[in-house]
Amino acid sequence: MPSKPSRPFLLATALVLSGVEIGVFAAFAWRGPALRAEAPRRYIAEPRANPFGPMLQNLRGAIVETARLAEPTAPARIEEPPTSAPRARPPSFLAALPPLTPLKPTLDIPVAPGEAPLPPARPRDLPAEPSAATALPPVAVSPPAATQALALAETPPANDQAAPRRDDGNFRLGAAVYVRIFKKEGQLELWRKQGERYALYRTYPICKWSGRLGPKLKSGDYQSPEGFYSVSVRQLNPNSHYHRAFDIGFPNAFDKQNGRTGAALMVHGACKSVGCFAMTDKVIEEIYGLVEAALRGGQHEVPVHIFPFRMTDLALAKETQGDWTNLWAAPPEHQQWSGFWQNLKEGYDLFEQTGEPPTAYACGSRYAFGAAGGSCRRIAGW
Q: Active-site positions?
C-alpha cells in the first residue's frame, strides 16, 4: 500500500501551483492593454471577452486598495476654503496603470476647416424669420387725397339717369319698357318696344321673394303681391338701402277697393325680401337703368304685371284643380284664388295676343281691360 504524501509536501505543492497561477493571471492582466494598443484597428472592432476578466478585476482592486492603505498620511492642515475647488490629485499608484484609450465615435463626419457646424433644427411651431436675401413686398400707403378720389370713383352718382351707357343695337336707348314677374318660376321678364310691338329683351332670375302663391292681403303678412301695377318717375329710388329700387305702387286702386293694405313694396337689389322682389345689385343696376331711361325718354308709366305663375290653361288647371294623371292634388289655399287667377289670366292672354301691355282698371272685385265704365279706376302710378 503506497504511503500518503506528507502534509508539508502537499502544502508546498499548493503554494507553487498558486504562485504559477497568479503569475499567469498577472501576465494576462498587464499585457492585455498593450496588446490591444499594438494590434491593428481592423482586429478590435469588437473586443473579445476575457475569461479571466472578473478574477483579474477583483485581484487588481485588492492591489489598489492595499497600495492606498500603505501610503503615509500627511497631517491635516486647516485652511480657509478656496473660492474655487482645486483639482483633486490622483493617487500615485494610478501612474503605473496603463493609459485609458478614449472612445472614438462610430461615425466620423468630415468638416472642412473654417466651416462652422450646422445650427440646431428650428422648432416647427415657431414662425420662420425672414432672411436678408428674401425681399419683403413693399407696403404702399395711399395718401388721404388718393383714397378719397378712389372712393368717389367707385361710388356711382346718386342721380345717374342713364345707367346703360350704350344701346345693344336692337333696341333704341330710352325705348318704352314693360316688366312681367312670375313668382313660381322665380323670373322677371324685361320687354322693350321695337316698332309697334314689344319684344323680350332679357329674362332675369329673381334672387328672393317672400311668402307663397297668392295675393298680398294686409301689411305684415310677408306676402309678395300679385296683380297689375304701374311705375312713374316719382317711384324711382336711386339711393335705396338695397342699391337701386323702384316702388311697384302697392296698394293700387284694385287693392284699395278690396281692403288690402301695405306699403313700400319694391323691386330692388341685394338678396333680401319682406314682400319685395330682390334681384341682386348687379341685376337691378341694369333693370333700373332701362326703366329710368324709358321714363326719361317719354314713357309716362312703366307697367309692372305680377303673376303667380305662367298663366297657361294647363298651369292654371293644375294649380287650382290638381292633376289626376299624376295623382297630384292642388293645395286648398290655391282653390280659393281660382277666380282671382282666372281674372289675371285675361290680362296675360291679351298681351300674348297683341304684344301690347293691356291697360288695367279696378272695377270692384275684378280687373277690367281696355275701355271701362265710370265706376272703374285706371291702374296708375303716383
A: 268, 276
